Amino acid sequence: MKYSTFEELPVWQASTRFALNVFEFTSKNDFRGLGDTKNQLERASLSISNNIAEGFERGTTNELINFLYIARGSAGESRSMLRICESLDRFSDLKFEISNLIKQAINISKQLHGWLESLKNSDIKGVRFFDNKVRKKIETDKEFAEFDQQMAEFRIEFERKLRTGEINARRADQV
């Protein structure tokens, strides 16, 4: 599926839910007296969706890849900070919530990793490089793929008819 806006991306949606969940988590009184930890965790979680959005809007695959790596790094940073919170006594009543946040961050990292791998193996340079020649090639490739699919379906159906006797072999030579 092709996405026309970053808001349609499942990983962007997951990362915004994660950031909102982190903001809810950091609103608890348990964060008092931890210095900049609350702010840092909030900024790291928010950085994930922001970098996905910025990379998507840049218009080149290389820039998108760069920003997705930054987003993945922010997911790791968030997870690291949550692991520290998990080990502090003041958060002992919130271990389940912390565990859920860590699982969300891991899921986002996995999604970003999959997307990055597909982008690294892509010949597409990005929408900024789409000119009429590139669009025509993509359209031609799509038409060839559809034709190949139709021919494969025709072959399967033809072989089925040969097996069932709907077409005899002698008549098949004429087809």
Q: What labels would you give this structure?
A:
mainly alpha, 175 residues, elongated, single chain, de novo design (two linked rop proteins)
What can you see in these coordinates?
The chain has 2 domains: 6-129, de novo design (two linked rop proteins), CATH 1.20.1440; 132-174, no CATH class. With 175 residues, it is mainly alpha-helical. The protein is elongated and about 90 Å long. It is built from 6 helices and no strands. The relative contact order is 0.10.
CATH topology of the largest domain: de novo design (two linked rop proteins)
Most strands sheet: none
- The tally of structural domains comes to 2
Overall body shape: elongated
Pairing-aware structural class of the strands and helices? mainly alpha
CATH superfamily of the largest domain: 23S rRNA-intervening sequence
H/E element sequence: HHHHHH
